[in-house]
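Board notes (copied after class):
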Amino acid sequence: MRMDKLLANSGYGTRKEVKKLLKTGVVKVDGEVVKDAKVHVDPEVEEVTVHDDIVEYREFIYLMMHKPPGLLSATEDNRQETVVDILQEEDKIFAPFPVGRLDKDTEGLLILTNDGQLAHQLLSPKKHVPKTYYATIDGEVTEEDVIAFKEGVTLDDGYETLPASLEILSSGESSEIEITIMEGKFHQVKRMFQAVGKSVTYLKRLSMGKLVLDETLELGEYRELTDEELEMLQQNN
């Protein structure tokens, strides 16, 4: 791994700041001063120090974001702002990506990480990781809908969904519900309600697996997962 990436990932600043740090001669590898940002090091084998303090390298980053509406669940886009665009530079350095997608107008829990293996396991159709959403619905949601969702509904492209758990919080011309699905098809919750003749007017993801959105996070805010939360995610695998 390049020296500048190692130091940036270990909290010593941006790549630009790290290059300035290297020029001062305070960085050593096995006791030898290194000033070149392009030098490759193996933190598992070689001892890297800054001001004679051993660098504790970390490979992965795990973030929980309260995704606001209006952002794409992508790493980059030429025309529109993405969830990665609002990260701090010290977190962008890890090159995290969103685990799955929330639609542009959907808000709520979004996990960002650079741990490809964990992301794959959370998104694998074979794992059936449950995802719970709160939604407001244009139309009266009934017990018939609850039964239909429990049996699985047929989407507009002919796909039959897995059974989903639908809980009616309030019902009327506008209804409030919570729904838990075990898969993640494109626009799935919206398309499931379309299948029963209703439309979603607001959608927010509350949880993924055992991980629940931290409601103290304002829209657009994020934080690192705690060890306990990371364990919860890994237990889904």
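Comment from the instructor: The helical segments are 3-9, 15-23, 89-92, 116-123, 143-151, 188-195, 227-235. The first strand starts at residue 27 and ends at 29.
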